[in-house]
Amino acid sequence: MRAEQTFGTRRFDPRFAHRRLSRRRMLKALAGGVIASAAAAAAGYGYISHIEPRWLQVERVRIPIPHLPEALEGLRIVQLSDIHLYPYTDLDLARQAVSLAAAQRPDLVALTGDFVLKSAEAIDDLAPVLAQLNPRLGIYAVLGNHEMWLDPAPVMAGLARFSIPTLINRGLHLGVGGASLYVAGLDDGWSGHPDLSLALAGRPADAVTLLMAHEPDLADETVRDGRVHLQLSGHSHGGQVRLPGVGALLLPFMARKYDQGLYRLTSGSGGLWLYTNRGIGVNNPPVRFGCRPEVTLFTLMHQVPGSEVPPGQSAPAS
Ligand SMILES: [Fe+2]
User: Fold this and answer.
1) Partner of 144 for a Cys bridge, out of 108, 206, 214, 275, CB 3.0 to 4.6 A?
2) Measured in angstroms, how far is the CA atom of residue 65 from the centroid of ligand 1?
3) What are the 10-residue block averages of pLDDT along the chain, 318 residues in total?
4) Which distant-in-sequence residues (6+ apart) come within 8 Å of 52 by Cβ?
5) How far is the centre of ligand 1, averaged over its atoms, from the C-alpha of 219 (Å)?
6) pTM for this entry
7) Which fold has domain 57-302?
8) Ligand 1 centre from 201 Cα, in Å?
């Protein structure tokens, strides 16, 4: 006798029940896969747009310098770069960065440009936050290409109101316990007229020399001069998106050679440390992946002749 049952108006044959069930399972699995993929994509987008861009990292870098005077041994320099306040980066992230910077107990703070992104007047909100750092040897700034493209004057004035000088092709000699420290800055390399000779004109011959230059690729010229010990730069944002085994997907003009981290450049018998900071803020598209925003602490140390250089990247000057 044939086993056949009727359900409603459709006839159900138990012999084919497994086919119906497996089709239903397949549809369910497919829907589950689509939902999981959408959730993963949403989580991924949430991570690159909301989590990593606000996930500040403190980088600590030792800088060995031959014949470093004892008074400068252990000198602590904090660098903040590319804050790009508004609209993608808010004041709260800048406050967090300043708080982390203060926790490093810096002797000196270097601000390497691109404070703003869309409006030069954003500096009026940012400068008082930066000024809270108040290190014993002062805070110094250079401008970035975005200040140049907007209007550099209100940015410089905004910083000056809080006693933060902008060093455009000039430097300042600081006496530190009988030792000489020279802090210099270059004009923006993209839209200005950087002049290293002018910037170093007042440098005492024996001064340990720090140069701030927004664009890192200017270092090829710096190392040929031979008088600078450490160049601090930003501008690259590290590329904002870095893939394992690939590196940065996109880098701006003048940050394509030295895109992040510490480099040792040499020219003749001289050498230069270059550090390219990944910055704090973002440009459009406002995302970061594999490239956390950073607050960087440098500690100067005496370089023992023949000793190993600290871990980091190295590249010959071209
Ligand atoms: Fe820049």
Assistant:
1) 214
2) 28
3) 47 61 73 73 91 98 97 98 98 98 98 98 98 98 98 98 98 98 98 98 97 98 97 98 97 98 92 98 98 98 73 44
4) 287, 288, 289, 291, 292
5) 15
6) 0.88
7) Purple Acid Phosphatase; chain A, domain 2 (3.60.21)
8) 26
